[in-house]
Amino acid sequence: MIHLEITVSDGRSQYITCKLQNCSDGNKSKPFPGFIISNSLVVQDEYVFIQVSVSGQAVHYVSYKRNAFYPMKLPKYTLPKDLQIISTDENQVLAAIQDSHQNDSYNLYMSDYRGLFFTLMLEDVVSTGGPEDNVMIDLYEVAGIKGVFLSNKVVENQVKTYITYNKGRDWRLLQAPTTDLQGNKVYCEQPYCSLHLHLHVSENPYASGNIVSKDTAPGVIIASGVVGPELSSVNVSIFITSDAGNTWREVFQEEFSVFFLNQGGSLVAIRHTPLPIRHIWLSFDEGRNWDKYSFTSSPLYVDGVLGEPGEDILIMTIFGHFSHRSEWQLLKIDFWPIFERRCTSEDYITWQLHNE
């Protein structure tokens, strides 16, 4: 089925569907009888969302499994001026709604299986952009384990990072590492001090972004952030967890881009800097120990990194320039020779989430 939003007149649109094999005027159907607000059609998994203007106010409608449309039922005192669909996984809708009094934050809501009735999940989540722009919500869904989310929330004018393991029913602050990179004890007591992470995912496919996790490496999350009372862009370090956010370790005290190799069996780190570099760091134990390698004889201004297709990646290509006036350079690194043996049962460890 093809889903279309057709502009009719005066900024009004209609929602039209037709079969892919024969999409002609005579075979089009109109699932919603009236006009809809332009650019409001969202088709995602089992759900279809539209907005309709009623007395100058946008009313949000949802269709579950392509059945009839019903107005979405939000809590009584919710006055939405913008609504963003975040996720429709596991037959639930996760939506971010900006209330009339909010400017730089959204509230998160979770629905029943029909996407009809919504309950509040988390208030005052940080956002960038506006209703007319591509809005970015500071919410990150951890890959590999269902129901785990990280979010940055405004608390008394401070931005703090929270984690949930049950899809938003309960949230808690992140426990800071017990020691820093040099092994010194870290004195950090909640709620006055905790670990805070930058949650923006890179729009550049050749960069790792501020936070990364993989379906093939459940429990491993790598992110940039700070330890203290609130999130900051000063003195940023790289942190890693192997148990889905229960405990964290500091692995670098400056910004790095970190990439997964071999389904997460090894990690490659490249210093994030505008200066030319010649080294990469490699870890086989989820960031507990790192070895430094030279990948080029001449320092390279790195513009990005490419991995071979698939999850079992053992080849990476680093591209950039030797100088601002030079041609593009592509350096291919094949990590296969360093994997000298197959894994045995002794190489595996068992871990589980805490009771809460």
Strand order of the largest sheet: 8-9-10-11-12
Cα end-to-end separation: 43 Å
Tell me, what's the shape? globular
Mean pLDDT: 88
DSSP summary, beta strand count: 28
Task: Tell me the fraction of residues in β-strands, as a range.
Answer: 35-45%
Provide structural commentary.
This protein is mainly β. The chain contains no helices and 28 strands. The strands form seven sheets. The protein has a five-stranded antiparallel beta sheet, with no helix packed on it. The chain starts with a strand and ends in a 22-residue tail after the last strand. The model has no long low-confidence stretch (mean pLDDT 88). Pfam families: Sortilin-Vps10. This is VPS10 domain-containing receptor SorCS1.
